Amino acid sequence: MEYVFFYLFAAVSVAAAVLVVVQKKAVYSALALILCFGAMAGLFFQLGSQFIAAIQVIVYAGAIMVLFVFVIMLVDPEAESYPGGSLRHISFWAIPLAVMLVFLLIQAFPDFLGSVAGTRASSPEAEGSVENIARALFTHYVVPFEVTSILILVAILGAIVLARRSD
Amino acid sequence: MVPTAHYLVLSAILFAIGVVGVLTRRNVITMFMCIELMLNAVNLAFLAFSRHLRQLDGQIFVFFVMTVAAAEAAVGLALIVVLSRQKQTLDVDQVNEMKG
Amino acid sequence: MLPYFALIVLFPLLGAFVNGVFGKRFPRRLSAIVGCLTVGLSFLLACLVFRELLLLDPHNRTISFKLFTWIESADLTVDAAFLLDPLSTIMILVVTGVGFLIHVYSVAYMAEEPGYYRFFSYLNLFIFMMSVLVLADNYLLMFVGWEGVGLCSYLLIGFYIERKSAGDAAKKAFIVNRIGDVGFILGAFLIFQTFGTFNYVQVFERVSGQFPSPEMGFGLLSAICLLLFVGAAGKSAQIPLYVWLPDAMEGPTPVSALIHAATMVTAGVYMIARSAALYSRAPETLLIVAVIGVATATLAACIALVQTDIKRVLAYSTVSQLGYMFVAAGVGAFGAGIFHLVTHAFFKALLFLGSGSVILALHHEQDMLRMGGLKRYLPITFWTMWVATLAISGIPPLSGFFSKDEILFSAFRLGHIILWMIGIAVAAMTAFYMARLMFLTFHGERRQAAAADPSGHAEHGGHGHSPKEPSALVTGPLMILAVFSAIAGFIGLPAYLGSNWLEHFLEPSFEYRFLESAAHGEHGLTQEIVLTVIAVLAGAIGIAIAYHSYIRDRELPSRVAERLAGLYSAARQKFYVDEIYDRLIVWPIERVSDLVLWRAIDVHVIDGLVNGAGGLVQYWANGLRRIQSGYTRSYATWVLLGAVLIFIYYYLVTA
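Predict the joint structure of the above. Result:
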């Protein structure tokens, strides 16, 4: 049963990713990416990270991608992929290199390939519930947490300052 | 349970697709979206390992990755807006002032 | 702590430094005082050393002191150390003594010249280098002094920097010297390779061990000695490397006196005498030394017969007398060679300084044909120079007689009859040209009156017509040297008149030399006296002929010159030796340098390499530049490529 869901979500996410890369209009790419994120949220859920899955949908698909769409609309709604290109040789090399990359990545972890990894269900400690994550976040990882909040503040300020019209 | 290897392979494929997108597309916003795709692939790998090693650290890390990605997206898009205002274009090949 | 005799060497160095660095701001008097004082002090210290040496037991008469360890590596240890034994002490006395007198003379002689402080600085530097040369206790340190005096010779010959001829002469001297130096250094290296050391005493000990009897034929030892002799030929102006010395007269007269008469040119003789242990065991080379010595003596004397520049005559005379010293060494009479070196230093320096006095008085006139009748105006110069002339002609009881006679007698006694005969002939020629010099310069009527303006316009600085004897600083040294030229002979009296003090004093310095066991048969006393009389007669005849030619029958020289026109003009032109060298040696070297070394190698190879290296870097940089295209996607692709390569490497390593 799990395998069905896995392959379903996997197929959707890969297809959506390909669509992102292939689409001419930027808006369509954004929409395809949202779809991809949704499928990945499902995968996350299947991996026992409920919290992260929820965050994926809320933050990534819900906020970041919306921001992307806003900017596309703001700048050039009809934005298209530009034709031709003086760097055709890059386009030529991109795919073979990427394929090599996949192959190497897979080969780099031989002991995981084809093996039945890990054992069954997690101990309560490792379950990705909100309570567990919260506990870890506010005890072991409280410093990065606080620092991240400052980071977000900086990002907000930066975005405002940068995008301001200079009048 | 689905073996961890499957998730890793999937992660690699998505990452590679993202790479192709970054190298191939000329619209800067689309490039950026492909980068987000790459980040997501990595998140997937993290979570797979987190489950495999039965630890929570991977998930915490993914949490932070998402946070940083959000911040990065905000600033990056602001820059793109400025860039498009300056150069009247979103073609990344037109932005080659650092040539030579 | 430094022993006091180290100061002999160090005082002149200090003087050279002080005058060289600060002299520009000194008043002339101060430069002069510094210059003379340092050498004077060195001389006094040398006298003290001499006295101390005399107090020592004759078989142990050496004082050595080490300044510092110069070279210390693997097999080679060379010290900056000095050896004071009879031979070097005699030499240092001559160097500092005559040197001091010449410094005093220069105070007055160079008074009008620019660069006064520079002159004394160089002169002091020369004394320092010469001291190092004679006091060194090993061949390598001697070579330092050897090169150093060559350098000072260059600096001093070319002292009149505004004169091109002076610069040319200086270069010629240095280059010809250099050729000799190559021989010397090769010889020194061979010595090291054969005996494992440069130190004199050690080398001599090992030589006497390895070669109990002289070498048969031309072997390793002869090669060493021959190479060293090449160096001596360069430094002491023997055939074929004598050509620099007549040109060296471009330098100021005190320089000619000090360097090219009394000290530097005698370095070669000193070196051979010092190496007596080596030379006495290499009879083939010794023969070569004697033959070259006598040939040089003859050639130089012939040229001197017909020269008209007063300094040139003296220059060729020096070359000729040096030939005598090498003859002495060549027959194995090392002590006699040193004896002649000492007496020659006195009377030749005197002759040069005297000629300087004449030149000064006549406002730098050097052509003898324009002199004459000066004995009235320059009495002290006149009388002192006559003393020197008689000495060089071998007239008893002056010093030259004893030393020259010693050489001739040794040659005869040791079986070299032909050398003796040629020596007698050269003695006659020597007497002739020296007397000729005196007659032309001092006797007869004044010839320059015809050339000068008879109405007496004060064009020459208001000195009027009458030449004047220069100051006491000039005449003083002349008189002192005259005294020594007269009495110095008595240190080396022949057997029938007393003991040869010098010979005995120098004995220990030659202790390692090979002495033939068969004692030379005591030639009878009569034979000795007969030979001596012949030598004196030769000198007297020479003077008599000169008197006849230049006082009595003035037309005689021109008649003889007409009769032997070809020979005469050849001699006037120094037998064209310089021209031959120019064609045979200089011209080919210049051509090769230009065509091969300059055009082919320098331009193509070296410039090619250097520019090519630059060009290569440029080429690569140009290529690399293209990576930075400004296109983000291109950069990203390179990053990806790099990542893939790292993964490949990782994969290959772990697989």
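The CA atoms of residues 24 and 65 of chain B lie 25 Å apart.
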